[in-house]
Amino acid sequence: MPTRRLDIDGREWQVYPSGFLTQYVGDEFGLIFVTGGGDARECRVTRYSPMGARSREQSLAEMDDAQLHDLFRASQPGARSPEAGYRS
Length: 88
What we know:
Blueprint: E1 4-8, E2 11-17, E3 29-35, E4 42-48, H1 56-62, H2 65-74, E5 76-77
Antiparallel strand pairs: 1-2, 2-3, 3-4, 4-5
């Protein structure tokens, strides 16, 4: 799985395609932003519609850092997200 690294507000975040599929399989993908480790690990998630490639990995590779920053700003904490492992 491809990973991107991004510096946001002085913290290094790793960005992964989530792999979680919704009913909008080819039109909407999820991203997970992760920083830290152990108890200090922080996870944020967001969804986006790819503008070019229709594969999760390729669309992540095609995005520039500014686009990823924008998606990070729109992301939400992953505490209750299925992408981040939440189970009801």
